[in-house]
Automatic annotation (TrEMBL):
InterPro entries: HemC, Porphobilin_deaminase_cofac_BS, Porphobilin_deaminase_N, Porphobilinogen_deaminase_C, Porphobilinogen_deaminase_C_sf. Its cofactor is dipyrromethane. Its EC number is 2.5.1.61. SUPFAM superfamilies: Periplasmic binding protein-like II, Porphobilinogen deaminase (hydroxymethylbilane synthase), C-terminal domain. It catalyses: 4 porphobilinogen + H2O = hydroxymethylbilane + 4 NH4(+). It comes from Pseudogymnoascus verrucosus. Tetrapolymerization of the monopyrrole PBG into the hydroxymethylbilane pre-uroporphyrinogen in several discrete steps. Residues 11-225 form the Porphobilinogen deaminase N-terminal domain. Residues 238-313 form the Porphobilinogen deaminase C-terminal domain. Pfam families: Porphobil_deam, Porphobil_deamC. Pathway: Porphyrin-containing compound metabolism; protoporphyrin-IX biosynthesis; coproporphyrinogen-III from 5-aminolevulinate: step 2/4. GO terms for biological process: protoporphyrinogen IX biosynthetic process. Belongs to the HMBS family. This is Porphobilinogen deaminase.
Length: 332
């Protein structure tokens, strides 16, 4: 039954200022509006640390809250009630005063190839030797170096439209770029996808939480938690919690080459297959493993992610990640 009271205060939704982030927040607002047609909603968009510095490669930041900390400050201070994040941008350890209230149905988590407008290439394999791939993600570049050693990689950052413009620039260095498929789809640019890059498509494992949104609230705000919980998707939430548990165990972040893939196998049986890979920056070393497990609770999801992480560490992932963090350039 929908809430109809117009006496409730406006629900204040925070997000990053990029077009994609605002579109995502508006989508959540519209869904909540249907649940509470008599309530008003306000969206506040701001630029975060990661948005303000468009030149530094993500790997060189080292920080794990580039996209979230300023918004969380407004949330904790009471100036916002909800923050809508891309789940892949959220650190696996949240501030003690914040919590994830819901993870809605996940969109396509795969990465996608976008070739410069006018070029004839249709796949990464058909790109000529030395072609330059734009990406800020070491997860993407490290995995793709293993599969396509004929390619070169260059840092490319900015919102979706900015990156597309840089790639399409006839005088620009980029022949193509890699980004999340759902990011393009959400802003109406699915037609620019040249090739989907899931592992089953001959591509790569995606980022933890990619394709999903995380709805963050102040811890203890049970009224908002209950309201947002109506947007939650059970299987999306369990799969993402397993992925985040794996990353937390590996002490990774968005700037390290950890890739995952989760797939529900058993229909109503809640059998989850989880695969993960850790790759060195130069792609010379990698560790990969897979576990199938029955997952019906948050605790079972967490246990699956932790078990797979432990197996990866035992096989050598810990040494790879330690080397990456030891050699990361210091930030001023």
């Amino acid at each position: 039954m929908a809430e109809t009271s117009s006496s409730m205060p406006p629900l204040r939704i925070g997000t990053r200022k990029s077009n994609l982030a605002v579109v995502q927040a508006e989508g959540i607002r519209d869904r909540l509006q249907k649940l509470a047609p008599g309530r008003t909603f306000e969206i506040t968009a701001l630029r975060t640390i990661g948005d303000k510095d468009q030149n530094t490669a993500l790997y060189n930041f080292g920080a794990k809250s580039l996209w979230t900390s300023e918004l969380e400050e407004l949330l904790v201070s009471g100036k916002l009630d909800i923050v809508v994040h891309c789940l892949k941008d959220m650190p696996t350890e949240l501030p003690s005063s914040c919590d994830i209230a819901a993870i809605p149905l996940r969109d396509d988590p795969r990465d996608a190839l976008i070739v410069k407008a006018g070029l004839p290439y249709t796949t990464l394999a058909t790109l000529p030797s030395g072609a330059i791939v734009g990406t800020s993600s070491v997860r993407r570049s490290a995995q793709l170096r293993r599969l396509h050693p004929h390619l070169r990689f260059a840092n490319l950052r900015g919102n979706v439209e900015t990156r597309l413009a840089k790639v399409d620039d006839p005088k620009g260095e980029y022949d193509c770029m890699i980004m999340s498929a759902c990011g393009l789809e959400r802003v109406g640019l699915a037609h620019r996808i040249t090739q989907y890059l899931g592992s089953k498509d001959g591509g790569i494992f995606y980022a933890v939480g990619q394709g999903a949104l995380g709805l963050e609230i102040r811890k203890g705000d049970e009224e908002t938690r209950e309201f947002l919980g109506r947007l939650g998707d059970e299987k999306s939430g369990l799969a993402c919690r397993a992925e985040r548990a794996l990353m937390r165990k590996l002490e990774g972040g968005c700037s390290v080459p950890i890739g995952v893939e989760t797939e529900w196998l058993g229909g109503a049986e809640f059998l989850l297959r989880m695969r993960a890979i850790v790759v060195s920056i130069d792609s010379s070393q990698s560790v990969q493993d897979t576990i199938d497990a029955r997952v019906q609770t948050d605790d079972e999801a967490t246990a699956l992610g932790q078990e797979l992480a432990a197996r990866l560490v035992k096989a050598g992932a810990g040494a790879i990640l330690k080397d990456i963090n030891t050699n990361r350039p210091a930030k001023d």
